[in-house]
Amino acid sequence: MNTRSSIQGLHPAIATPEVEAAIDAVIAGIDQAQSKLTGVRSPDPDKQAAAAATIQTYGEARGRGLWYPLMGSGLGRGALVELTDGSVKYDFITGIGVHAFGHGDLDIIRTAIMAATGDVVMQGNLQCNEDAAAFSEALLSGAADGGERKLAHCFLTNSGALANENALKICMQKTGGAPRVLTFEHCFAGRTTTMAQVGDSAGARQGLALNLEVEHLPYFDPADPEGSTSRAVEQLEQAIRRYPCQHACLALEPLQGEGGFNVAPRSFFQPLMERARAAGIPIWFDEVQSFGRTEAMYRYQWLDLEPDVVTVGKMSQVCATLYTPDMNPNPGLLSATFIGSTASLRVGRRMLERLQAEGAYGEDGRHARLHQAFRRFARQLVESNPEHFPSPHDPGRPASPDEVIGGAGGMMRLTPYGGDATRIKPLLMRMLDAGVIAFSCGHGPVHLRFLPPMGVLTESDIESVLGIVGDVLEEDA
């Protein structure tokens, strides 16, 4: 028997029929437990007090409470998750996009169980197993353009913010220690001391000593495509003239996450990239939130653009910085104790394999079709509840659906109340009570943010969730 193929992922010394049978038994038990999760369920009164006590204790240990007063029980099924209070809810934020295959996917659990038979829990940059090589290969082969690997190198780490730190270090070394960063308004790059300065959020850097010069260019405005592009190019030109040879990189999110699921076309980025390259400024694409979730594995591929450095994270489970041969740094610049856990490496690789094999990408791929289903159901919601969807730009009139429905692929956005931040969080809390976990994004207007589990999502899930949102809005009336 070829144990390598029959029990893929197990060491040959462990891959016995007995081990395979034991894993099958565990999977069967989980499958049976999950069968009870068929839809939204109210809390169990007998579990609520203990659940609340645990959440409070954890909040005290953290120094502040959780944004949502909830914890998972460890059981879930697809887009549904059971909480410690016994309730079941739709998870449409998935740990800010981390749980790409939702809760309790049996194939993903099997992959993680097999990883647990390995000799170590965490793998690192001093010593790792072949899992790290296989995962790096999956990322690099996914980035190949017609077989050509313009992004030839991949450095793994266990945090999106650290992947971004590594990207900035690579760019700084390439430009001889250039101290300035060009990026865009409404961007987000992480919460390390440096990345908090790159991001366009005053609250994230409050009280920090600022040691990085960052210039935020205007992002694409769909209401004024040519004007917003011209303004961005003009400000870029001005920055280059004012500080020649002082910019380490042009850092951009091809689809902004925290900033509001703001989408920009190729025609916006291309002239900016051309001008930056002419000035010797490397191009860094931050895809930590968008990676894998839209119509291509990498968003830059969908836009037909060529970055020098790309960072990925969240749904990949293990984060990474990819870069061209020309950007390969000197020894000593990049290192870290951890790459990630053995389970994360194997699960991340398996997720990428399945997304590609199951037709997630392309103009008519699953991600594109699911996004169109979201827009269809959201349009019905907006048209049937115009009083809750005033225009964010002109509150005196009802919005057109295109004004309040946005995003791409698995990054889905809806804007009730004209994007009034003081009303969005209470709405999110009412949605939580009704059975939907979502979040917000944007700096004004503020939107409802959905990052559903694209690997297992169905149109029925989307319809059910937006039906619940509609019910909550009607109650609010």
What does this entry look like structurally?
A hairpin with a 2-residue loop joins strand 13 and strand 14. 41% of the residues lie in helices and 15% in strands. It has 3 domains: 33 residues, no CATH class; 236 residues, 3-Layer(aba) Sandwich (Aspartate Aminotransferase, domain 2), CATH 3.40.640.10; 111 residues, Aspartate Aminotransferase, domain 1. The protein is built from 16 helices and 17 strands. With 477 residues, the protein is α/β, with parallel strands linked by helices. The N terminus is likely disordered. It is globular. Helix 5 packs antiparallel against helix 12, helix 6 packs parallel to helix 12 and helix 15 crosses helix 16. The N and C termini lie far apart (65 Å).
